[in-house]
């Protein structure tokens, strides 16, 4: 699985390299995947997100991690995490598999690719909740050329036993600290976060 995920990360990096040339410095954007890239990621995961970043030489590393919330309360601040050296531009890839047959075990894959190479990590989390029976919603940071200052929320996956649920608002992605109450509508929520480090 790790080799396949690394191959997918490399493919996404190579195919999106041209798009990075048009981005401003010190920015991150969600990638609009081609039909082929979408097919590859769908084969290996059930939910996936890809982001391209462009940075100047002041930034040396990026830290990416997944946090878990239950009814709006933080219960695990690093289910999966990865720190990688970065130069100029690259991509961050986040993908999850379907929960296993019990509905209580889910795999999280994080990949960071750039000029200095590719790093990836795959971890799983066991939960007491049966995620397979819950409604789920997922979304990510919208728009092009978002600033990389501070801690960023890049994506979320929310699960609710209430049935129909809505995604997080754009305001959440712009200022998560002032909108954390939005996570209360989910029984379980996972946030993908990133921080670029000088």
Describe the 3D structure.
By secondary structure, this protein is α+β, with helices and mostly antiparallel strands. It has three helices and eleven strands; from the N terminus they run H-E-H-E-E-E-E-E-E-E-E-E-H-E. The chain has helices spanning 2-20, 35-44, 170-174; strands at 27-30, 47-54, 61-70, 73-85, 89-96, 105-114, 117-126, 135-140, 146-147, 151-160, 188-197. The strands form two sheets. A six-stranded antiparallel sheet has the order 7-6-5-2-1-9, with helices on one face. A five-stranded antiparallel sheet has the order 4-3-11-10-8. Strand 6 and strand 7 (117-126) form a beta hairpin. Helix 1 (2-20) runs antiparallel to helix 2 (35-44). It is globular and about 45 Å long. Mean pLDDT is 85; it is low at 3-21.
What are its keywords?
disordered N terminus, alpha+beta, 198 residues, 3 helices, six-stranded antiparallel beta sheet, five-stranded antiparallel beta sheet
Layout of secondary structure:
Layout: H1 2-20, E1 27-30, H2 35-44, E2 47-54, E3 61-70, E4 73-85, E5 89-96, E6 105-114, E7 117-126, E8 135-140, E9 146-147, E10 151-160, H3 170-174, E11 188-197
Antiparallel strand pairs: 1-2, 1-9, 2-5, 3-4, 3-11, 5-6, 6-7, 8-10, 10-11
Give the overall average pLDDT: 85
Uncertain regions spanning at least 5 consecutive residues: 3-21
Kindly state the number of beta strands. Answer: 11
Structural shape: globular
Question: What structural class should be given to the helix and strand makeup?
Answer: alpha+beta
Radius of gyration: 16 Å
- Residues in helix, %: 10-25%
The topology string of helices and strands comes to HEHEEEEEEEEEHE
β-sheet strand percentage: over 45%
Q: Biggest sheet, open or closed, and with what strands and sense? A: 6 strands, antiparallel
Give the helix tally: 3
What strand line-up does the widest sheet have?
7-6-5-2-1-9
Q: What distance lies between the first and last C-alpha atoms, to the nearest angstrom?
A: 32 Å
